[in-house]
Amino acid sequence: MGRRLVVTGPAAAGGNRMAAAKEQGGGAGVEGVAGGRAVRIAVTGGFEFQSVVIDPKAVDPDDVEMLQDLVLAALNHAIEQISALQQGGIDLGGLDL
């Protein structure tokens, strides 16, 4: 038999706020970019990552750390945009990316 986990108190309230935020921004999408669009990450407002695109020119086998930094920067950019979208700070002009 499987175990059932019941969350109560502040942890449950946090989960409810997270679900509400996900529902509010879940339909819209944003694109996090870094390195002059060398790395692009598409994600929905519900934090479902859709794609990662890396320009082949950004791949330098002698400097993998730079590519890793660009991916992290693009992820952080996407998360910042989702936060702004959920707070009503981004005008998508009717676009659903």
Task: Outline the structure in words.
- The protein has helices at residues 10-25, 64-86, and strands at 29-34, 39-44, 49-54.
- By secondary structure, the chain is α+β, with helices and mostly antiparallel strands.
- A three-stranded antiparallel sheet has the order 1-2-3.
- The longest helix has 23 residues, at 64-86.
- The chain is elongated.
The general outline is elongated
Main β-sheet description: 3 strands, antiparallel
Number of strands: 3
Mean pLDDT: 77
The Cα radius of gyration reads 17 Å
Name the beta content range: 15-25%
How many helices? Answer: 2
DSSP helix fraction: 40-55%
Unreliable stretches covering 5 or more consecutive residues = 1-9, 11-18
Give the terminus-to-terminus CA distance.
Answer: 42 Å
> Structural class of the helix and strand makeup?
alpha+beta
Task: Provide key terms for this protein.
elongated, 40% helix, 3 strands, 97 residues, 2 helices, 3-stranded antiparallel β-sheet, single chain, alpha+beta
What topology does this entry show?
Layout: H1 10-25, E1 29-34, E2 39-44, E3 49-54, H2 64-86
Antiparallel strand pairs: 1-2, 2-3
What is this entry, summarized?
By secondary structure, the protein is an alpha+beta fold. It has 2 helices and 3 strands. A hairpin with a 4-residue loop joins strand 1 and strand 2.
